[in-house]
Design brief:
Order of helices and strands of chain A: EEEHEHEHEEEHHHEHEH
Radius of gyration of chain A: 20 Å
Shape of chain A: globular
CATH class of the largest domain in chain A: Alpha Beta
Strand content of chain A: 15-25%
Helix content of chain A: 25-40%
Number of domains of chain A: 2
Oligomer: homodimer
Distance between the termini of chain A: 19 Å
CATH superfamily of the largest domain in chain A: ATPase, nucleotide binding domain
Number of helices of chain A: 8
Chain lengths: 288, 288
């Protein structure tokens, strides 16, 4: 019998659970509103148990979780959600409770890292060992894959908080990151765009000056990633990238920033859309 | 009989060759001036053959080379020096000629990546899976280790050419990088310091305003590395770092830049000094 795997995209507003082997073979799927840890985890366990009872037991489970999370396998807190402000969730042993409840091994990553893995397995970075997945929405996050493996380091990359060069005359907006004020996220995430221009990003027309400025900041990010990681591809997704004029503008700025010193990596949209995280969690389970 | 390994630090002015098993067990060592490829490689081969004749044959050879080099194992040009301006060396199949000449497997990396590996095996980053080795001298280079492995990507990191934030009022110096003008190397490598202040870095007194400015640029680099890679440690070496006041100033600026969002990685000097590259080449051979 073919082995089946379980996946959970554990988000702050909903948990999406699925059983299957890949994007074209998801046998069952359930969305659970994220309430208390006890109720949410119980509902997820019930889903996988029911699937097992129906002849669809899973061999392993992959989880892509909202954070912050503990990813150090040597830590007694591995698989826990750590210091989240989300009521009740700080300190939840998410991976442990799921694994013990189902009796299967669990792989555990951040949501954005899981999405990066999903794109690397079945999406726009399929077959690539070196790429970065960037998502620009209410925040800016990224999953970094180098040599075929996620870069974690001590914790995990936080590319949204990179400090970028800016031209204060062209963009006097002070930035809104509560930590750094004018880091990338404070200048270029959705809420920063809305605060700078006085209306939500999605209401700004395609020819609004917001977009060349946004592309310039994201090209600064792409140049930094190119110089530190030498990736083959950088995927830009998330709500803000729904603006189709952005990617061509980023592609235009990037070679100017690299100035011929190295070839610009390919700049592309992700291919899996909102499914990337769930499918990445599935890939995690399959790789265990 | 204990296995011995060969190492070559292949520099633009000299090749250093050694046979042994580690920093406290180098059985023989030879420095060869870098002349033509044919003469230099012949001298290196003669050294290792003589060692073999004396009962010290090597099981494998590691090479840390000046560049640019081809590191893609799938490329027919793997192990070649590619587009160097150094007369006669462009297109030299360095790894291939050494491997065929000695009949042993060859591991091949850039000089700075080899130095990073040396520090990771026997130096200031021993036992760490996630660290960056930065060298600031006539240029600025870096070797990135993530998850215990060198980050190559499509080519290799070029962190010296990162664009850094600057305060044009405080530092109107335009920068001297021929590609980017005011990238990190163009603002903060040894020649940039000399050009800005009108005398070589080593002649500037310890209380010269050059150093707080230099530390600020290097702290920008450290913050970028922390946010992209989450390393445990960043080693700063090279000629410019001979100024002992620099590291404490970098350590002081870095937490300001990260602003409490993540813990600053440890900033430390390398431990192996000019031996890092040679010892890293040895580590490469041992890991084959």
């Amino acid at each position: 019998m073919e082995k089946l795997f379980g996946a959970i995209e554990a988000g702050g507003t909903k948990f999406v659970c699925a059983v299957g082997t890949g994007p074209d073979d998801l046998r069952a799927e359930l969305r659970i509103p994220t309430s208390t840890p006890a109720a949410t985890i119980a509902a997820a366990l019930a889903f996988f148990r029911e699937q097992a009872a129906r002849g669809r037991p899973i061999a392993a489970l992959g989880v892509g979780s909202f954070g912050p999370v503990e990813l150090d396998l040597a830590s007694p807190s591995w698989g826990h959600i750590t210091s989240t402000p989300k009521p009740g969730w700080a300190g939840t042993d998410l991976a442990g409770e799921l694994g013990r409840g189902l009796g299967v091994p669990v792989a555990f990553e951040t949501d954005v890292d899981a999405a990066a893995l999903g794109e690397g397995r079945w999406g726009a970075a399929a077959g690539l060992d070196d790429f970065v997945y960037v998502t620009v929405g209410t925040g800016i996050g990224g999953g970094v894959v180098a040599g075929g493996r996620l870069v974690h380091g001590r914790q995990h990359p936080e590319i949204g908080h990179l400090r970028v060069r800016r031209d204060h005359a062209a963009d006097p907006f002070p930035g809104i990151c509560p930590f750094h004020r004018d880091c990338l996220e404070g200048l270029a995430a959705g809420p920063a765009i809305a605060a700078r221009w006085g209306k939500p990003a999605e209401e700004l027309p395609a020819d609004h000056p917001a977009w060349p400025l946004e592309a310039r900041y994201l090209a600064e990010l792409a140049a930094t990633l190119a110089l530190v990681l030498s990736p083959r591809k950088i995927l830009f997704g998330g709500g803000v990238l729904q603006q189709p004029q952005l990617l061509p503008l980023i592609r235009q700025h990037l070679p100017e920033l690299l100035a011929g010193y190295l070839e610009a990596p390919e700049i592309a949209p992700p291919a899996l859309g909102p499914r990337a995280g769930l499918l990445g969690a599935l890939a995690l389970a399959e790789d265990l």
